[in-house]
Amino acid sequence: MTQFFQTAYATIIFAMLGTATLHAAAAESDLTIFGKDGSTLATFTQDDAEALGTHEIVTKTPWTNGSIRLSGVRATRLLAEAGLANVDLTVIALDDYMAVVPWSDLVERDALFATRIDGERLTFDQRGPFWLIFDFDDVPEAEMSEMASKAVWHLVQIEVE
Question: Which of 48, 96, 128, 138 is deepest in the core (most CB within 10 A)?
Answer without folding.
Answer: 128
